[in-house]
Amino acid sequence: MTKADELATDKKDEDGAALPIEVVYQENICFWERAWNMCKVPYTQLPDLSYIPRIADELNKVGAKRILDLGCGSGWLAVYLARQGFEVVGVDVSAQAINLANTWAKQEDLKISFDVGDASQLQYQAGSFDAVVANSIFEHFPIKQAQQLTDKVHLMLKDGGVFVGCFDKVGGGPGEYYSLEDGTHVYTDKARKGMMLRRYSLEELQDLFKDFKAMSNDEVDGGSIFLVANK
Question: Which of 12, 44, 139, 197 is the most exposed place for a label (fewest CB within 10 A)?
Fold first, then answer.
């Protein structure tokens, strides 16, 4: 038995049954709140990613104006897009991340709407956005929740709208974890306890976005997949 198998065996309820995915997923949410609560001021620097300008380019191709930034964290992508003149709404599950994002936007006098919310349970109206962006977000969802999220993205987009996302080439990394049935890793070590992480294959991504009219992708920084899906 591998270490991962041993850890998976430990994740049982009092009756010895495997914990439901909803419970494990809630632990993932708690991880992100703990992680963001360690940050007291926003880090107001854009990450060193070569594809950042491409995001705005793809939005401009379809004439997008109103954008939803999924899993916006402390707001770097929302801030970048607002600087380019887009109307941006950012959403993140962590209240502290949203506090930091609001602070950053205020510092730059940018009008960005930030909401606290679970990306897999969004309540925005159908056709609310011209585009949805997600940078390194889907990697923290199991397949089932990722499909629910993709379906919501499709619903929230206007006809002719676009999804632009980057899917990191993540690995196991340091630390202990067990694996869900779909292969998603759930970390158990102190530093990342509860965090979910999975690497999506191109075939899985094609299946997730199968309801979109067109999908294109290519490899970017560190082997990550830059994906554009048109509704």
Answer: 12
DSSP the chain: --HHHHHHHH-B-TTSPBPPHHHHHHHHHHHHHHHHHT--S--------TTHHHHHHHHHHTT--EEEEET-TTSHHHHHHHHTT-EEEEEES-HHHHHHHHHHHHHTT---EEEE--GGG--PPTT-EEEEEEES-GGGS-HHHHHHHHHHHHHHEEEEEEEEEEE------SS-EEE-TTS-EEE-SGGGTT-EE-PPPHHHHHHHTTTSSEEEEEE-GGGPEEEEEE-
Residue 1: pLDDT band (50, 70, 90) is very low
What local confidence, expressed as pLDDT, does residue 6 receive? 40
**Predicted local confidence at residue 120, as pLDDT:** 80
Q: Residue 95 carries which side chain, given as an amino acid letter?
A: A
- Which CATH architecture fits 61-230? 3-Layer(aba) Sandwich (3.40)
Q: What is the pLDDT of residues 94-110, one digit of tens each?
A: 999 999 999 999 999 99
Q: At what angle do helices 21-37 and 95-107 cross, to 10 degrees?
A: 40
17 — pLDDT class (breaks 50, 70, 90):
very low
Tell me which residue of 158, 71, 52 sits closest to 119, measured CA to CA: 71
pTM of the model: 0.89
**Torsional sign, CA 152, 138, 219, 132:** positive
Give the up-direction half-sphere exposure of residue 136: CA atoms within 13 A in the CB hemisphere. 15
